[in-house]
Specification:
- With 164 residues, the protein is an all-alpha fold.
- The protein has two domains: 61 residues, no CATH class; 101 residues, no CATH class.
- The protein has seven helices and two strands, in the order H-H-E-E-H-H-H-H-H.
- A hairpin with a 2-residue loop joins strand 1 and strand 2.
- Helix 2 crosses helix 4.
Amino acid sequence: MDIVEQLKRQAQEIASEGFNGWGNTMLIAAEEIEQLRGVVAMKNAGKNKPPNAVLNGTRRKKPEDHLWDALLAVCGLNGSIPTLSERGAWNKSVQALRAVKATPQEIQARGTAYRKRWPNVSLTPTALARRWNECIATITPSVSKERLPDDYYKPDGTVNTKYA
């Protein structure tokens, strides 16, 4: 069995047991191995450009994620370079907020409500997602009623191109 397949299978097994962080590390390693294989294959084929994932040691630009940006902004984490475990926790928080169809405006409003309710407690992406419904009381009706269309996010969590 190929190493990439082994890593992916082990990541699924670990995730099914509730240890997502270690599984994410294995998935990242599997992706990097696949990227390196692509670079080697392109060099062996005599082509100048590797596949769209890697170009001269830099990664392709990902599409904007407005929920991610809003969450990091409200928590004061703009420009931070997270560790793998932090990034995994932050991604899980964004995933939870997508599930309730949160908007960037709602994130900002609830972040403000969180800080008012718990002024001496750190506001982190995980904390806001965990206390989401406890921060609803101070939201203005215009923000709380604003909802995204049901097809705004594709099943893989990315924004539908018709709204991008």
